Amino acid sequence: MDGDTGRTTGGPASPSGSADSSGSADSSGPAGPSGASALTGLTAAAREGWAAENRAAAQRLVACYALLQECWREYGHGIDGSHEARPGHAVVDGLVAAAGYVVAAMSISARRAEKMLSFSWELHTRYPAILEAMAAGLMEQRVAELLTRQMSTVRGDVLEQIQRQAVEDYLGGVAAGIRLGDKALRDEIDAVIGRHDPDAIRLRKEDASRTRGVRIGKGVDGMSSVSALLATEEAAVLAEALDQRVAEHDAADAGAAAAQAAARAADPDTDPDEPEPHYSKAERRADALMSLICGDTPTHPGTDTDDADGGPAGAPSRPGGPSAPTGGGQAPVLRPKVTVIATGDNGRDEHGARVEFTRTGEAALQTLLEMLATADGASFEQVDPRIGAADDTSAALKYRPGAELARRVRLRDGTCRHPGCAVPADDCDLDHVVPFNHADPASGGHTVEANLVSQCRRHHRFKTFSDWTYTLQSDGTLIVTTPDGTTMLTRPDGPLAQYRREHQRDEADAWARQQRRNPAPVFGASILDEATYFARRAQRLARERARATARNTTDAGTTPTEPTADTTPGPDSISATRERMTPAAASRWWQRNKPTDSALEKAILHALHAHLDELLQPPPPF
Question: Using one digit for the tens of pLDDT, what is the confidence trace for 420-441?
């Protein structure tokens, strides 16, 4: 530490070794002796906290292993498979039971709990040297997981020797001040494995090749995730294709920008365009990926189709238009599957309908309308959000739910309803919370929405054969109670449940407004009459006509007045008037391939947008 302290001070020590002569000048700065001692103390405190965290992680894994062993004994299923199930019952996986207890104790996901339990078993049975280093506070869990992954296929007869040498080399390097990154650390471990068990590396790579795949998940804020795990050579080819398409898009955008600049130079009266926001390389790669997969529109005129045919010769096209790469000349073919959650007679409802893409989540309404205008076809599914709308008296006595009821339950739940589980509901079974009575269906366990939940296959079997109790409330809330009395509660998070919660909040807000307006239940002239559906429709049409009249008056053309110094827009006014940006509007690929801006399509789009509620929700009958 003396050498480190000398470097920290930033200068050589005085010959006498005293700091008094310079202390008055340097003690206030970070390079002075007092600053160095403070940094040394803070560094030591941070290291002690890091070591304590490592010891706590080891203690947690030891407790998890003990819990796993107890669950295996409790449910009669050992790790070696020697215990048999009770007659007439399936084997309850002790790992699933232990994960349930961990979720109840730590409030983590079921997947993370199972990984933690599996890791604790591996440390105790295969990698005791790694567990000892963690318990001593010298190795963090992330490094321990990396070491176990690298040694996962090592033969048992040489595993003890390899892990001891790997741990000693790592701890010795840390003590010597060597700080390796993850890749360098993996290379160091592979070098040790290669000297004792070369086949282990080959087997590990073969196992890794089976994890290849592409996954699409629902995101938040109008975004979704697309992740791909590919072979190295496949990823290299894809990266080259993406970079090439990005370069083509950049060239097209640069050419269009130059043409626009030339047009502005030829016509000085043209208003300058606002500078575009920074478009990152990641966003450009997203455009390139969409272009490679879905293609680009081959032709995309830059003028209105009602104007002269094709426009003047040599007219500049917009970025990504005809000059942009066409992805093989194939236009994007879109056939969206859309779920609309709305009642059939809620024209008076002010919260409107909820639009959801089946696989990727909620969509912006304007983006949906643009997609429908250019789609090759679409599948619309209207779902009545009222609880029990699909229940049927005769179908309730049958074990298998109908297609409509099954769809409603999955739209309500969103995921597996077991605490902490995130398996999508589309991949789950439908489970009767109160078991269906096959001998006498009328006695209970009916096949209705209030008695069905989505459960993945593992948790479905666990719920059926374990001694945990499950209670489902009318709004879809599931209460799970463990044998020791611990209670967990899960609420459905599917689009149907979210719509219902929003509707409940709207109703509560409407009631609160009514109470503020007329707190006493006295009927008189002071009570404001609620507008009917037709009155609100007439008011909306009047507002639209007023806006159209004002817009036509403005377009007819009043001479703009010269702005004064006091009316110069500031940053606040600019941000206040900035248009709302949606995720689709930020995508240049979408802007290049959305419908052609013809007058006819504009009229159709405006009509769809203005009368969507009336199309999906007809007015109430007289």
Answer: 999 999 899 999 999 999 989 8
